[in-house]
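Subject: complex prediction, re-run

Hi both,

The earlier run crashed halfway through, so I resubmitted it with identical inputs.
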Amino acid sequence: MSIEIVNVSKRFGDFVALDNVNVSIPAGQLTALLGPSGGGKSTLLRIIAGLETADSGRIEIEGVDATKLSPQKRNVGFVFQHYAAFKHLSVARNVAFGLEIRKRPKDEIRERVHELLKLVHLAQFADRLPSQLSGGQRQRMALARALAVQPTVLLLDEPFGALDAKVRKELRDWLRRLHDEVHVTTVFVTHDQEEALEVADEIVVINEGRVEQIGSPDALYDTPANDFVMRFLGPVTELGDRLVRPHDLQLLTGGGESGAVPGRITRITRVGFEIRVVVAVRDQFVTVTLTRNEFLSLDLHVGSEVQVRVAPEVANSVGQSRVLGAV
Amino acid sequence: MTSTALSPDRPATSRRPVRTGRPLTRVSGLGFGVAMMWFSLLVLIPLAAVVVTASAGGWSTFWQAVTNEQTAAAIELTVGTAFAVTLVNIVMGTMIAWVLVRDRFFGKRALEILIDVPFALPTIVAGLVLLSLYGRNSPLGVDIANTRPAVFLAFLFVTLPFVVRTVQPVLAELERDVEEAAMSLGASRFTVFRRIILPSLTPAIAAGAALSFARGVSEYGSLVLLSGNLPMKTEVTSVRILSSIENDNLDSAAAVATILLLISFVVIVLLDVIQRRMVRRG
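This time it finished cleanly. Structure:
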């Protein structure tokens, strides 16, 4: 285990940012701290980096107790949401900063900076100022700067949060590939569940200062520990007193199958390849998502009478049945 | 990293900022005209008049006026003291701004307002305050009346707010995460200050220093009571100019004024050059 977080608590005045948090972050993996804004995930990351001190608890990095170490001595790379570029220094000198602090020989610095700029596709921008780069480029520069000192762990605080959707997606894929190449233990904070599911090897879901669940993206999506995790990781709808994913529901046009409940279609929305059908079942509106082909084969219209049920294979695979309101 | 989906990076704009602005329209032309006329009436024409007056008597008269022993001493005292005061202000002003922005303490708001008092006070009132505190009957037992330190003190008093007030807003705007980034890269607090914070503050410090120097060179009211205006000893240029005018020696007054104008101009340009260098060096 590369980072051990043991019984960490942190308050800001009356606000409890972290409440007795315990997490083990595996070495060499890409771990996401996922949760809603203000849930404490950024605070946890900053405590790991030493930029914030915990009120109680312990932080170990690679077996070394780092609780009392200053940020300068932790050898972590930190990437900020708003780039934190050194505005008066060129891109190359931004990247070189950590190496210059460590008084490495000039030749070595030049070589390493060039290597890193190639890695982040900024080699031709070495002499530019950060203000002459786009947001995505600036964030790649920040990443190269953090990697330059060969950190034991790389920490990224909402690294793509300030970028537009397309660049976000590109950088996300790119971070994944970069990690597969560099293999440094990486922790990134995000409130975007899609980002976490797509990029991370392991996800830590944090809400209101507590860890809700830790696991692989598959485990979290398929067997969420509670309603919060289920709701946070993907779309949900309610059928009776069950919380289910809309794509785990089936629509039947024939007569009474077992476990199916009758309803009437009130709304049909098409979003690309996905059709969202809202069905009025008793006093509920249940959302069901179908693929385009399923939808066409069923010949559905607003007002059609249908039967709704949870797909049989799903009903069996979900570990525990969830009752609304229970956590 | 052989394959990548990243879109090829477009060549960004050139390093030199693109010239902003458009050709003048009728309305903006009017605005430009008014601005230029205002500036000319208030600044350019009076300045030109001073230079013309100074040159009216010819080069030799000018040179005589400037090299007059008493005048030279006044210029030396004024410029030297303004320079020293500016150096002190650069250090102290930055420090006061730092305390006001970064620290929380009792009475911060009061200090915040008090900083401007030397600036807001009529200078002759400042002179009275200084005289009663540091004059013959000083309650502190410090009597510097009629000495050069009196000039230094008066300059310090009236120029205090300049660096503080120019640095403060820039310091407040600095992003803390930039400093945190430098710290996590291993930079000590001092290195962070020297290599990250100071380059961002330099333009503001330079601007404050220029104001402080200019104000020092032109100071009259606050020192006239305490310094005693002793020729060759504590007489500053503004006093010298006034006495020249009182003696109906307008040429000499204008000559001294021209020299001051020149020195101020050189100092302001120099500060700008130094400031640009510092920022680039990081």
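Chain A is about 30% helix and 30% strand.

- K.
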